[in-house]
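#structure-requests
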Amino acid sequence: MLRHMRTSLDIPDPLLRKAKALARARRTTVRQLVLEGLRTVLEQPPKKPERLEDWSFGGKGLVDGLQWEDWDEILRRSYEGRGG
């Protein structure tokens, strides 16, 4: 029965240097620090997603003919007549 799985992680060099220094100071390994960090994160209760207040006019979303992907057009229309 397989109890462990090998994997690879891409860790930015500055972060890895700090992790190695901390591991030396604690007389442990980077692997143990990673496991400790994962356990800490996984033991925390899940965060509630932040809800943004609905600022759309009338609560009906975008005006007819616009999609959320039309960001350039949305910006152009929002500044129309306002010197933007």
